[in-house]
Amino acid sequence: MSYDRVRDSQTIIGTKQTVKAMRAGSVKELFVALDADNWVTDSAISFAREIGIPVTLVESKKELGKACRIHVGAAVVAITVE
């Protein structure tokens, strides 16, 4: 499942940090929580699609945050190039 890929990978959490990493060419996949506000996620999704990075939608900010081993929800998470 998607959360397992996040749990087992090096990640960047948050829209601003993710977009910055995408600009640097450091991202191989983007995960976005469906229950996050669009104004938080839209810029990251648009940019990822523009530059050809796969976007995976997951159900829950809470579960995405838990997969990243943080105690708050995460709207946008990027798996980095290793």
UniProtKB/TrEMBL annotation:
For this protein, the record's Pfam families field holds:
Ribosomal_L7Ae
- The chain positions of domain Ribosomal protein eL8/eL30/eS12/Gadd45 read 8-81
> Which domain of life does the protein's organism represent?
Bacteria
Name-wise, this protein is Ribosomal L7Ae/L30e/S12e/Gadd45 family protein
